């Protein structure tokens, strides 16, 4: 009677007890961590670094927009050139 047939129900009930006790304890721990983290203000060097990163991202966005505008212009020129070549070949 002390074989594996007893081990499964005991393990099952031990797991249920662990879940019933563990979930509220983990929720309390998470709430405590949130409260402690919400009051902390970022350091000044972190704020300055984020501002520099934001400025860098904005300048990169402007450069990407310039590149895409140049690509659209080049595509337009090539398209017009192709149309002109087709017109000269067809004799129009």
Apparent shape: elongated
Query: What portion of the residues fall into strands of 2 or more residues?
Result: under 5%
Q: What is the averaged pLDDT score?
A: 86
Whole-number total of structural domains:
2
Taking the sheet with the most strands, its summary is: none
| Helix segment tally | 2
User: Distance between the terminal alpha carbons, to the nearest Å?
Assistant: 101 Å
Order of helices and strands: HH
Helix content: over 70%
Which stretches of 5+ consecutive residues score pLDDT under 50?
none
Helix/strand/pairing category: mainly alpha
Oligomer: single chain
The count of strands amounts to 0
Alpha-carbon Rg, integer: 34 Å
Which keywords apply here?
mainly alpha; 2 domains; 92 residues; 0% strand; elongated
Report what the structure shows:
The model has no long low-confidence stretch (mean pLDDT 86). It is built from two helices and no strands. The chain has helices at residues 4-38, 44-90. The protein has two domains: 1-40; 44-92. Helices cover 89% and strands 0% of the residues. It is mainly α and 92 residues long.
